[in-house]
Each structure stands twice: as structure tokens, then as C-alpha cells.
Fold this sequence. Notes:
The protein is mostly helical. Helix content is 63%, strand content 3%. It has helices at residues 3-10, 14-22, 40-54, 59-70, 76-109, 120-126; strands at 29-30, 36-37. A two-stranded antiparallel sheet has the order 1-2. Strand 1 (29-30) and strand 2 (36-37) form a beta hairpin. Helix 1 crosses helix 3 (40-54). The mean pLDDT is 93.
Amino acid sequence: MNIGEAAAASGVSAKMIRHYETLGLIQPQRRKNNYRAYTEQNVAVLRFIRHARDLAFPLSEVKRLLGLWRDDTRQSSEVRRIALGHVDALEEKARSLRAVADSLRHLARNCQGNDRPECPILEHMEGKADVHHH
């Protein structure tokens, strides 16, 4: 199948398919005219990548998981270790995002939100404000 058909079958955009190819995650066949030809196996790999990315795995870990998926002698404990490490990273990111949201909420509370130009939110971004989150 061509790239458009592979994109439709996998739910991965043609642009991302080309990107994954440059990263070596997928290797389509080449026809005599040098056009890419995608197989059902390529589509299965693209679906795997899409589902891993939906779980917010970084591409480096997607590559490791792909290797384990392809390895019939894998140990599920390795997959579990990667997954739990990713959970820890996601939870840390969630804590960080909550702290950023709290800071922005604090700045917004200090903004009058009227027709005057003074705004502690913009002053903070400019580096002038001395508004600290408590």
C-alpha cells in the first residue's frame, strides 16, 4: 500500500510516518520506481507506535518497546519496568504542571483584570514583577 493508505490504516499521519522512517522505526519496501510500499507488518508497527505515543511514551522508549515486542524471548518484567518508570516520569511531570498552574493562578489573582494596562502576569513574564507564589 502507499503512504496515504498506510496512514489511513494505522491512524498515523503521512508526515509522522516519514519521520518514523528517518528514525529507523519503520522500514517500508521500495518499489522499482523508488516509491515506498507499506506492508501489513509496517501498519502493525505504526499502530504499535501510535498506541505507545498515546500513552505518552517518548520515542526513545517506544524504540525499546518495539524491540521487546519483536523479541519472542523477551521477559515481560523488562516491559513492566519500562512502563513503571514511565509512570514515575508522568507523575513527576503532573506535579510540575500543577505547580506551574498554581503559580499562574496566583498571578491571575493579583491581576485587576480591568481596563487599566497594569498586569502582574505580563510583568512576571517580562521579569519585572516580584510576585512570589506561597
